[in-house]
Amino acid sequence: MQLVERQALVGGEWKDATYEKRFSVLNPADGSEIARVADCGTTEAQQALDAAEIAFRSWRQTTAAQRSEVLRRWAGLMLDRQEELARLLTAEQGKPLAEARGEVAYAAGFLTWFAEEGRRSHGGVVPPHRNDARIVVMKEPVGVVAAVTPWNFPLAMITRKIGPALAAGCTIVIKPAEDTPLSALALARLGEEAGVPAGVVSIVTTTSPADVVGVWMASPAVRKFSFTGSTATGKLLMRQCADTVKRVSLELGGNAPLIVFDDADIELAVRGTIASKFRNTGQTCVCANRILVEDGIYDRYAAALSKAVAALKVAPGVEEGTAQGPLINAAALTKVERHVADAIAKGASVLTGGVRHDRGGLFYAPTVLRDVTPDMALAQEETFGPVAGLFRFRGEQEAIALANATETGLSAYFFTRDIGRAWRVAAALEAGMVGINEGVISTEVAPFGGIKQSGLGREGASEGLDEYLESKYVLFGGLSVQ
Ligand code: SIN
User: Fold this and answer.
1) Domain span including residue 15
2) Which atom belonging to ligand 1 lies closest to the Cα atom of 286?
3) Does 165 lie in the same domain as 39?
4) Which of 442, 454, 458 to mutate for ligand 1's pocket (most ligand atoms within 8 Å of CB)?
5) CA distances (Å), 415 to each of 144, 221, 295, in order?
6) Is 184 part of any domain?
7) Do 263 and 244 share a structural domain?
8) Can you tell me whether residue 56 is helix, strand or coil?
9) pLDDT one-digit tens code per residue, 309-346
10) Which residue among 99, 103, 110, 152 has the greatest number of ligand 1 atoms within 8 angstroms of its CB, and so is best to mutate?
11) What CA dihedral angle connects 410, 104, 91 and 360, to 10 degrees?
12) Which of 116, 120, 367, 399 lies at a CB distance of 3.0 to 4.6 Å from 387, suitable for a disulfide?
């Protein structure tokens, strides 16, 4: 396998951890070991941070065009090595190769987008409140950034933080997920080839996240923290940011509703549901988690969906035609089993799946459950697995009430052919992102993020760059300009 790095990138040096500690990275499709990676601790966390502080002094002085050039080259190298990156990603994460190739392109897209946005990041001249004054607002990088990224998109969730950070003139230290450090390290190797200077990006791999991240949280040198992961961990980390008043961006969990109205195009709704629910084997924060189906279409939709789901090929991601790979680890499998068992015990019935897949290991059969109700665990928590639970509703008001009955508000989807309803429902849904007649809406050009307990801030789009910039207001006074 190409591009396999075993050392961490700390302040521009590829390094082993203290005492050469390492941890195993396993292929979730068969449990085999892919590599043993540096298991860093507080020493490496501090070294990365010190280097980021030093590098910030010069990186912030580069021009936007210079930074843009580096990001562009980096994106280009990612696309040149798309197949190798995709195979590595599938090996450690499990997603089908076609999805992994898509993720490489998606991830590179953030670097290209922010290479462009960075060049257009200008402040402003504000009409002054006095004739003898002039006011300008300058955009400045926030400073050193610390980031913690998840395993479900091991490349894209990093580039959507690195892209804006570097474009803005910030430096960044990153702790990737311990299940998927290899994609992060491969990305860093390409960054080095693209000309990212030493210390501007560090990747600190570890199985002791609290120790590594603790160093960064405690340090006043870290001016911004960006996290993608669970709501519970996000709350904990947000508290830790309070002592040094860091800027915080959080992309947390969702419990996305997907509503199918009676007037929906049923084929489109089934395709959209599969795209949303079963992408990455159901392991995305924006996956539909509760499928709300209107009474009049319920039976037809349930039959069509379960037929399509039963036909999904379940296999290791590298096999041709695979639609569903393994789950990431044993804890993920246990959660899926718990949700299905709880739903069945409370009255749901299985239309397809509902058991581990014959392939064994971490494979779970893609599942459709009918007669799901709000008291079930899968209505209240993200399942993060290939289980579509169908609720029944009558009328728009009930759909909206059910959809909004959650503490989170990341994404929401609905299918309708009524244009008036499309506007009404989009406005009424409590979510940061809404897909109408579409199940996958992620793109680097639109602001990604949630409301309620799904997080703070936005990633991608021009909003994504603002998260890494401060506005400095400067007043020129005592001017004789009359
Ligand atoms: C996520 O699951 O956190 C991100 C998914 C996406 O970018 O589409």
Assistant:
1) 8-252
2) 2
3) yes
4) 442
5) 43, 47, 14
6) yes
7) no
8) helix
9) 999 999 999 999 999 999 999 999 999 999 999 999 99
10) 152
11) 40
12) 367
Ligand 1 centre from 179 Cα, in Å? 17
Structural domain count of the chain: 2
Residues 231 and 141 in one domain: yes
Same domain, 288 and 234: no
Asked, for residue 94, whether it belongs to a domain, the answer is: yes
Q: Considering only CA atoms, which residue is closest to atom 6 of ligand 1? A: 442
Q: How far apart are CA 252 and CA 230, in angstroms?
A: 5
List pLDDT tens digits, range 232-243.
999 999 999 999
Is 482 a residue whose pLDDT tops 70? no
Across the chain, mean pLDDT equals 97
Residues whose beta carbon lies within 6 Å of some atom of ligand 1: 152-153, 156, 228, 251, 284-286, 442
Residue nearest to atom 7 of ligand 1 (CA): 442
Measure 287 CA to ligand 1 centroid, in angstroms.
8
Q: Is the pLDDT of residue 1 over 80?
A: no
Chain segment 93-120, per-residue pLDDT in tens: 999 999 999 999 999 999 999 999 999 9
Report the number of secondary-structure helices (H) and strands (E) in the chain.
Answer: 15, 22
Question: Residue 463 above 80 pLDDT?
Answer: yes
For residues 461 and 253, the answer to whether their CB atoms sit within 8 Å is no
Q: Does one domain contain both 213 and 188? A: yes
Residues 114 and 230 in one domain: yes
- Residues serving a catalytic function are 251, 285
pLDDT at 59 over 70: yes
In a shared domain, residues 165 and 272: no
DSSP 264-301: S-HHHHHHHHHHHHHGGGG-STTSEEEEEEEGGGHHHH
Measured from the Cα of 106, ligand 1's closest atom is 7
Tell me the whole-structure pTM to 2 decimals: 0.97
Residues 61, 188, single domain; the answer is yes
